[in-house]
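ok so heres the complex, two chains, lmk if somethin looks off
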Amino acid sequence: MDYKVEATAPGTSARAGLITTAHGTIETPIFMPVGTVGSVKAVQFRDLRDDINARIILGNTYHLYLRPGTEILRRAGGLHKFIGWERPILTDSGGFQVFSLADNRKLTEKGAQFRSHIDGSKHLFTPENVVDIQRAIGSDIMMALDECPPGTSDYDYASRSLDLTLRWLDRGWSHFNSTEPLYGYSQAYFPIVQGCTYPDLRKRSARHVASLGADGNAIGGLAVGEPAEVMYEMIEVVNEILPADKPRYLMGVGTPVNILEAIDRGVDMMDCVMPTRNARNGMLFTCHGTMNMRNRKWADDFSPLQPDGPSYVDHVYSKAYLRHLFIANELLALEIASIHNLAFYLWLVGEARRHIVSGDFATWKAEMVETLGRRL
Amino acid sequence: MDYKVEATAPGTSARAGLITTAHGTIETPIFMPVGTVGSVKAVQFRDLRDDINARIILGNTYHLYLRPGTEILRRAGGLHKFIGWERPILTDSGGFQVFSLADNRKLTEKGAQFRSHIDGSKHLFTPENVVDIQRAIGSDIMMALDECPPGTSDYDYASRSLDLTLRWLDRGWSHFNSTEPLYGYSQAYFPIVQGCTYPDLRKRSARHVASLGADGNAIGGLAVGEPAEVMYEMIEVVNEILPADKPRYLMGVGTPVNILEAIDRGVDMMDCVMPTRNARNGMLFTCHGTMNMRNRKWADDFSPLQPDGPSYVDHVYSKAYLRHLFIANELLALEIASIHNLAFYLWLVGEARRHIVSGDFATWKAEMVETLGRRL
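and the predicted structre for the whole thing:
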């Protein structure tokens, strides 16, 4: 994997870059649609590629490990071939999902034991075997196994958790460097900065992460309930330490405003289920504000979803029709809203990049942040 | 509406025709995907038009009357504009749905009283007001209100039911002829032949229907549990009477084999929820037989869904991947399977037409009926 910075935005830490992978290039900043179990929910791959213009998607190691399983993925020749997606894929390590299982997991020095949410069967994720699983998946970018402590953790817990995460990181990094990809193309391995909302822990974590010299680096454990300002502060603390010549990936973030604020602070990559999950709940994001499509006010609004919207669904379907589909519980509603929201997220990061390159990112961002928060 | 026969198939009653409506032409025989409440379930209109190549779709008056309601449809300028579909639309009369409500409806000379399945509110469908509702919908082809007696009705009930249906038909026909379309283009009105499985009732009904000289005629009350051979016999009895220079629409039919047998007996139009409903249950129809996509046998079959299939989904998605999506309960599974099945149904009637025109329909049909029934 290769990364180069192509432009920076005066008065901010925002940068426009280009990541090169075995499955093509990615202009950054970029948003990565989440394809949990090998499918971006409700969205056809053709639409994902041609209408949404997704450049890279994310898969969840936890889900893919359970279904279809590494044996099937290996025999398919990896996830790209299995799902028919030729552009880059990033996979998380499974840690976040495992730690979301609450009572169904147990943490040891060796790794994270858990029970499948599907059939209750027992499994163990270790820093080493999640590398092996991601080798079988064949993702272009693999992630290190980390502990994701609750956002409310006290300093003592957060510190001990970070120590474990760093020991796991060294084991995973070592295993990554002593194993080969399975399908003839190279894979990158991103370490993850943790440390909850404690600046000194974040710094310690970032220094350790930076010292590895990985192809890219991630920031985890944010957007888990802390105030947005605290999240932004942590990003700043960390990005001062993470190398500027490598891409920075902020995991699981976020709202359109979060995304612009993160870009402003030097983040290059983001992912979140918000555009697709909220779509399925009837909420559309637009550059003019958000719309709850179940609202009665749209019942007789026959204008297009978004006359200046970036996706074809914005032009061929009306607000009244989409509202009708949601009220009537039609599957088409979920599809239209998902395509719209993802196309909007990709438009947003594309516009951010354009304004970074043209030099007026700061002004554009300030205006955009103001309109994004409106309720239409 | 205009119809002309373009070719007939030697040794059968099959014919290739052309229906002309205000929203374009329809080559017959044709299958009409069902868009119950203004959406063909799980399918984008772009795919319906360009990939599935649907020439006409069906809407259900009962469902559209309840949601979004005639007031919204009238203000939208009709269903075509409301849903953004520029090709022809046929609407049923609502009768079939009302009679499916069992305890929640009451039959009188005036019409059919029923309670909404959504909120329990009371409504009345009459032969006249279902014309008015379909005027508001703006369908290219409207259907008469009929009673759909149970398939198991005894002769006495079937006969009295038919009498009522014929009185309703005369009222509806008269109302149709004394009202005008609302949106500047003409609408056709098809009467429906009933009579359960009693040949003399079917004949009486068909003679009455034929006497009206409508633009097209329908056969209802079949495929409701009677043996297929009985259905075919009823089609033959009726089609001997229904005018050959008008299209014949067999309502709610059916399996791919049913469709070929109906075409063989002179039917021109068909609709059924089977391709979409079965798709959502994981069943694919192909010209080589049917596939249950939840079956374990597909888990490691990485070949395309149908290498010689008519739709793009047949080529870009594998059997193993679609099986995985069904097992993981992903919405994309429903979309892929629905597109596949509808594209197959449209392919099937298109091939039937091609073979009618080229003169070898009978041979082709015999071979096809043999393979369609296989389980892959």
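quick notes: Chain B touches chain A at residues 37-47, 63, 67-68, 72, 75-77, 81-84, 299-300, 302, 312-313, 316-318, 320-321, 324-325, 327-328, 330-332, 334-336 (CB under 8 Å). thats all i got rn
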